Amino acid sequence: QVQLVESGGGLVQAGGSLRLSCAASGNIFSINAMGWYRQAPGKQRELVATITRGGSTNYADSLKGRFTISRDNAKNTVYLQMNSLKPEDTAVYYCNAGVVLTTKPSLYDYWGQGTQVTVSS
Nearest CA to 59 among 89, 86, 36? Predict the structure, then answer.
């Protein structure tokens, strides 16, 4: 009913930048919080950043100052600007959204398929 499609991942050298995008589509009435999470090989999925519909943000402490989350409510899209990338940022990055459907007045949690970010040293 709702699809989240991520883009913008790839291979970058240490110190470089990438911008991830995640567009939501489907039976969307409204989207509450959106966020980015990541999972490195052999590790658990962890929070990167979240943003409310009103624009309030929350970041993993270790990423503050290098990563910036933003969103365009009109486009149902969330972005993640990643600067000064390090090899330890290598992971699959997942988009997440809390969606109220047009068909059901309840909040549902959706995930994207993930996009690979690889930072070479």
Answer: 36
